[in-house]
Amino acid sequence: SPTNAVDGGIDTCCKDTQTELAERVAAIDVAVGPDRSDQNGEDNTEENDTVFSDNIKDIQRNGVNSDMGMNELLPSQRPEDAHCRHVPKRPLTRPVLSSRKLSLQERSSGGYLASSNTPGYGPYATGPSPRIMRRPTIESNRVSISDSEDCVQLNQYKLQSEIGKGSYGVVKLAYNENDDKYYAMKVLSKKKLLKQYGFPRRPPPRGSKTSSGEQPKPMAPLDRVYQEIAILKKLDHVNIVKLVEVLDDPAEDNLYMVTLPHPNRPVMEVPSDHPFSEEQARLYFRDIVLGIEYLHYQKIIHRDIKPSNLLLGDDGHVKIADFGVSNQFEGNDAQLSSTAGTPAFMAPEAISDTGKSFSGKALDVWAMGITLYCFVYGKCPFIDEYILGLHNRIKNKPVEFPEEAQISEELKELILRMLDKNPETRITVPEIKVN
């Protein structure tokens, strides 16, 4: 699998180990999970459990014995209280970069990139695992909540510590009993989102008008959440946050989004007194380039690339998150005319008073340039106490490179080309890849 290739795992031609067979057993329950109700809404749990039990026996006959360790046991085989005090597995380590600077084209099938010979994929595309089929997002419209001694149980998930918080709600660490894995669960209050729409916090987007010349009605926050869900459902890439399940019970106020990676921690907090080395920045930036290339291929403009929206997974790879202001487009590129995203990461054309439309892909490249600058300097290149002053700096001030951090001339040139104030001459994602 791609993960094994990156982390120096076993050869794919080797026989499955007992641990892998156990993982295959755990995956059976996921496969039958979405189909537990028939067309009449009747619960078919008993029938599915019978199929699950038969499949366990089949695999056990093929080599899974009974002397596995606690971490290799199936969820149903562990002590009743094991999940609330479950110790997470040690994070996977990422390989150390060599001193030689490799371009993305040189990263062949020996890494996590798919080979150029893979049918249906480009020479740099990240293909699916050869052994794991893509699983569609599970959508559940019934939520059962109960309290146990140490955890809150929500369907098959045991909710544990809070790992994030915002005006929308909270993000909790969730343990899935069905597949013995941890996830991040975003809990959103639909009432709060509707109330937020009734009291907008910011004026309508600059420069966006309907054909009649009137300002368009801004999208409601709850509608943006559903738009984000629709976008995430169609994405499947190692450098994109994976939406695993959506739980939206009409009778409940809360809406739940279950995602990977579960640590849910940003790759960097800005400002930071501990910027990355050039080699570390290169490692993370490659992931961002591959993720953005995939999004643009799927005709999606992210519009809010920044370090806090780049999560670091257990596999050591960066995952692009937060598609709340993203745009889907038709044709070769999105032609946008409204502002969205974070002010310090906005491109000059997005804050212009001309009202002209601009390239969506070029917007993402600019934000990637600001992000790369943050990686090596720990701060944004354009900073001002006031929003109008910030806009003026973005549109008119040249990029400056502080002397406290020494970076190569090649990296400076790349940053300058990404932060070209003219979107027509700004470097493109394909050009970034060969840099």
UniProtKB/TrEMBL annotation:
* Compositional bias of kind Acidic residues: 40-49
Question: Which residues does the annotation say bind ATP?
Answer: 186
The molecular function terms in GO held by this entry are: ATP binding; calcium/calmodulin-dependent protein kinase activity; calmodulin binding
Q: Which UniProt keywords apply?
A: ATP-binding, Calmodulin-binding, Cytoplasm, Kinase, Nucleotide-binding, Nucleus, Phosphoprotein, Serine/threonine-protein kinase, Transferase
Which coarse location class applies to the principal site listed for this UniProt protein?
A: cytoplasm
- Could you give a single Gene Ontology term from the biological process aspect? intracellular signal transduction
Organism superkingdom: Eukaryota
Q: Where in the cell is it found?
A: Cytoplasm; Nucleus
Q: Which reaction does it catalyse?
A: L-seryl-[protein] + ATP = O-phospho-L-seryl-[protein] + ADP + H(+); L-threonyl-[protein] + ATP = O-phospho-L-threonyl-[protein] + ADP + H(+)
UniProt keyword annotation of Repeat present: no
Which portions of the sequence form the region Disordered? 29-133, 197-219
A GO cellular component term found in this entry reads: nucleoplasm
Where in this chain does the record put each Protein kinase domain? 157-435
Q: Where is the composition biased (Polar residues)?
A: 100-119
Q: Which family does it belong to?
A: Belongs to the protein kinase superfamily.
**Protein name, please?**
KKCC1 kinase
